GNAT family N-acetyltransferase
Amino acid sequence: MKISIVVTQEEHFKFAQEICDTIESSALLRGTGIAKRTPEYIQKKMSNGDAMIALADGKFAGFCYIESWQHGKFVAHSGLIVHPDYRSLGLAKKIKSKVFDYSLKRFPDAKIFGITTGLAVMKINSELGYKPVPFSELTTDPSFWAGCKTCTNYQILQSKENKMCLCTGMLYDPKEKQKTPPRHPFNEAVLSRLKKIKQALFLNKLLSFIFLFKI
């Protein structure tokens, strides 16, 4: 099976709805929050050349798009998804790597960042040279954070004034001298514990709030 990963064009508009459905269903299966996107938004990214799609014999196999913030100072990769029929092939890493290289060419001075609850994405990011950072090191553009409104965890983000959520922030700064292997090797056990600690802290605060409210 030959899978090609290419920069999107208008001919790929027909896959927009399937991409949105696959992103949403994947989030539901994982039990995680996600910022929803419309087919129209995905098509806009496609027509601007701000996305890459993986195709297997003409069928949708995977996708990821690029967003820039603060006049190109920051760049984020969003909507990384692999169709269920093509998982366990290492395709997510291939797509992410392609989008990463593409971003470096288009925005050579931009800091590349992402927020995610997925350990698989964290691992890929770490291998590319990202490091975990507090949200304060990410973009302050309100448009970016507004994109989280459809996420089930948005109230948590608001309560923390966009400084913390269940997601982990990760950042690649092209001005930092990169080493091989990456300076920040991925430790799945540590990040998994961090995620559980975050969830426990937020749950305890929520229960305390409910208790006080009832009183």
The longest strand covers residues 59-69. Helices lie at 16-30, 39-47, 91-106, 119-128, 142-146, 154-159, 188-214. The beta strands are 3-7, 51-56, 59-69, 74-82, 111-116, 131-133, 168-172.
